[in-house]
Amino acid sequence: MTDVDELRRRTRELVAAHPPADTERLDFLRARFDAGLAWVHFPEGLGGLGLPRSLQVVVDAELTAAGAPDNDPRRIGIGLGMAAPTILQYGTEEQKARLLRPLWTGEEVWCQLFSEPGAGSDLAALGTRAVREGDDWVVNGQKVWTSSAHVARWAILIARTDPGVPKHRGITYFVCDMTDPGVEVRPLRQITGEAEFNEVFLTDVRIPDSRRLGEVGDGWRVAQTTLNNERVAIGGRRLPREGGMIGPVARTWRERPDLRTHDLHQRLMKLWVEAEVARLTGERLSQQLVAGQPGPEGAGMKLAFARLNQEISGLEVELRGEEGLLYDDWTMRRPELVDFTGRDAGYRYLRSKGNSIEGGTSEVLLNIVAERVLGLPAEPRTDKDVAWKDLAR
């Protein structure tokens, strides 16, 4: 029996034992995880079967045909796309066993405590401090632009544990309990009117050393696993043709011939082709992931994603004319996910401005592509060998 046949058999057994129409959603998801059908490339006992990542589509197709629920991946994208690969690579067996199942089922939402107001786009300059006290680390500092912090149970956190070494060293990676009384989450209202992001203040938060990922002082290397996966998660999503931002514009063009001009037609065709090229490149990147962990190539995909979203949304507003200046709802809300295609053109235009900041600024990603993909000479860095505590701030 081939792996494909075995997966189909296991999936059908799962559906037979837990009929989707008669089984509570969470119970079905837990059973799927325990059957190794959550992410088949993960090890046995951790939601997988140790099979190639490419075989996940076999399971997904069977479950879709059976009407089975999914785990709402857009709502828990940080956990699935960033925390889980890092925990799998650097976590202890106890950490994996405790954290991965409720992460995948969506019972526990995750957020990412990386960016800081004082570090800007230079993540390695972070100043949040973690000081060892016995078996705990006491953490103090501030994080910013934290998606889902208002609903998160856990956070992946990097903090400075040794200020006496250069900035890329002396950083350690932790799992932070967002229910700790020292964690304060404040909404950040954006240009869209919503508070999708948050700022997070950490005051004497005690994190047991048992919730450290990787070695002390090796947090930058651990964080690269998270960041590479984040860029792929943002820029390399698998989409159908005319999926994403180009879809609403193309539909408007077809349905509203009164809005068409020659100039807009030329611009739309150019962006449609670029969106299709980006989509196919994302497909290729997804296939390459079957062979291992994502590398710096994800930076290029994320760059293209940000630029295209901003150009396409700008074209859509212009295409709609006066209608494009309308906005559906300025109500202050704290949503759990970003819905680009479910809102109006004004929302897409405003929200896409953040695409060139979140997940790494476009300027930083251009450097990554130049140095790590194209092999160009690195920019001079005068602070490379200077202790963090001696840097000008």
**Helical segment tally?**
11
Succession of helices and strands: HHHHHEEEEEEEEHHHHHH
Order of strands, main sheet, comes to 1-4-5-8
Helix vs. strand class: alpha+beta
Gyration radius, to the nearest Å? Answer: 22 Å
Portion of residues in helices? 40-55%
Mean pLDDT metric: 91
Overall strand count:
8
Give the termini distance in whole angstroms: 63 Å
Question: How would you sum up the major sheet?
Answer: 4 strands, mixed
What percent strand? 5-15%
What's the structural blueprint in terms of helices and strands?
Blueprint: H1 3-17, H2 25-34, H3 56-65, H4 77-90, H5 93-105, E1 110-113, E2 129-133, E3 136-143, E4 154-160, E5 171-177, E6 183-188, E7 197-208, E8 212-213, H6 219-235, H7 246-255, H8 262-288, H9 297-320, H10 345-351, H11 362-373
Parallel strand pairs: 1-4
Antiparallel strand pairs: 2-3, 3-7, 4-5, 5-8, 6-7
Can you walk me through this structure?
With 393 residues, the protein is of the alpha+beta class. The protein has 11 helices and 8 strands. The strands form 2 sheets. The protein has a 4-stranded mixed sheet. A 4-stranded antiparallel sheet has the order 2-3-7-6, with no helix packed on it. The longest helix is centred in the C-terminal third of the chain and has 27 residues, at 262-288. The model has no long low-confidence stretch (mean pLDDT 91).
In a few lines, what is going on in this structure?
This protein is an alpha+beta fold. It contains 11 helices and 8 strands.
